[in-house]
Amino acid sequence: MIDRERLMDQKSPAILWLRQDLRLADNIALEAVSHHLFFAVYIWDDEDPWSPGGASRWWLHKSLLSLHRSFQERGVQLILRKGKPLQVLKHLVQETKACAVYWNRCYEPYVIKRDQEIKSSLKQEGIFCQSFKGSLLTEPWEMQTTTKGAYQVFTPFWNKLKEISFARPLSVPDLQGFKPSVFSESLEEWHFNPTLWGRGLEEIWTPGEQGAWDNLSGFLNDGIQSYASRRDIPSGQYTSRLSPHLHWGEISPTQIWHEALLSCGKDSLPFLRQLGWREFSCHLLFHFPHMPFQNLRVSFSDFPWQDNPDHLKIWQTGQTGYPLVDAGMRELWHTGWMHNRVRMIVASFLVKHLLIPWQQGKEWFWDTLVDADLANNAASWQWVAGSGADAAPYFRIFNPVLQSEKFDPHGLYIKQWVPELQALNSPHIHSPWKASAQILEKAGVTLGKTYPFPLVDHAFARQRALDAFAR
Predict the structure, then answer these.
(1) Is the alpha carbon torsion for 53, 24, 253, 220 positive or negative?
(2) Which segments constitute the Photolyase/cryptochrome alpha/beta domain (predicted)?
(3) May I ask the CATH class of domain 136-166+211-287?
(4) E strands, 2-105, where?
């Protein structure tokens, strides 16, 4: 039973358990805990089967530093602990005589099961527990088809979502920090900074709540009006780049939704549709928890995938001989991010040109993306592979040369990330192997030495994929 007197005792603190909600504004759990003396805790669950990858850990390190400063300015402690969350929370309750624990929900299958067990166990010991919707516009179980089932097609899901009127975002509440000092582990001891790469991350990203708002403000001022017409161009900053801020909860989808509508009304819907895909992905993960591992379409279970570590490594390092594919993979390694159009192209190349299982691509993205999100990552890879609930048709195989000519016509994106081709111009930069020996020599390009020949022939790979899908 819940000890109500203890809950109302202002001398007993409450605990704010932070996860993917590293912000002060529009934080429902923070609003609830602000009625108590409280401290915040971030727990590194080292048994989580989907522990953040290398790039995400770098982001988390920076984001926690930023949040620590924000809490410190308001007299609130942010405690860091590593271990099983239930054990950590029980220890903190015992140490501080805490009366309540509040948190915002996450929706990964492992986390849902774990959180249910935590809530049940703490309540049995008289600790008040409450969780909230803090990272989505709608709960996955709230969106239902006319037959009360789960959506498996995005368009009707989006049509329903965009008609909902969402509550206005919450402002930062007044906070009352728990004064006795609580032991915290050191963030430096967690060794989240990558050793293989990281300089490129530092150059372009500012993790934290203020960084998220700076990104959103810049996009609303300069980018959203032309988003629909320019979002597929990878050579400029025509997208919001809010995805890592969203994943870590440095800004909420509700905040973005309201600010975008306030900025340009219904003209913002092409941009907000991307929030819709994020919601849809989480909806699918909740209803189909095997999505990160298994094909949603059972017919793909016998697909003749090829296990080819050499080809996988060539794709990972951006040495496929297709300039747009290589540019995308190198941008990913340098910055922890990749333009969305290029993500689709490189993913299609892996699963359809090379017939490598989508799960292997998903794992690479998980380790190298600063915005790696279990629902988005799995749903998007299955969309490209054709194995998802609402997937691209199997015969849609991106031609990397045509995609390059269409969306990077002057080769600006390629020249940025594949510098060995900088002296080539269109049309040769899109397919260097078609250029004459004289043009290549003038550009300082020696195929097979300074830049590779194509790993596979597109026409051959396309037909091989179509034959495999047909079988």
Answers:
(1) negative
(2) 12-137
(3) mainly alpha
(4) 14-18, 37-44, 78-82, 100-104
Annotated binding residue 373? yes
Distance CA 182, CA 77 (A): 8
- What's the topology of domain 4-134? Rossmann fold (3.40.50)
Whether 46 and 362 have beta carbons less than 8 Å apart is answered as no
Torsion of CA 225, 227, 233, 239, to 10 degrees: 110
Tell me if 461 is assigned to a ligand binding site. Answer: no
d(CA 283, CA 141): 8
Token pair in block for residue 271: 């941009």
SS3 38: strand
Q: Tell me: the pLDDT tens digits for 283-341?
A: 999 999 999 999 999 888 889 999 999 999 999 999 999 999 999 999 999 999 999 99
Q: Is 317 annotated as a binding residue?
A: no
Annotated binding residue 371: yes
Q: How many CB atoms lie within 10 A of CB 220?
A: 19
Residue 243 confidence (pLDDT) above 50: yes
Its pTM stands at: 0.95
Query: Residue 132 forms beta bridges with which residues?
Result: 104
**Other residues' Cβ atoms within 10 Å of the Cβ of residue 181:** 9
**Is 271 annotated as a binding-site member?**
yes
- Are 247 and 372 in contact by the 8 Å Cβ rule? The answer is yes
298-470 placed in CATH 2.60.120.10: no
Structure tokens at 29: 């759990």
Question: CA quadruple 430, 436, 441, 442: dihedral positive or negative?
Answer: negative
Would you list the domain boundaries of the chain? 4-134, 136-166+211-287, 298-470
Does the annotation flag 242 for ligand binding? yes
Residue 241 in marked binding region: yes
Residue 243 labeled ligand binder:
yes
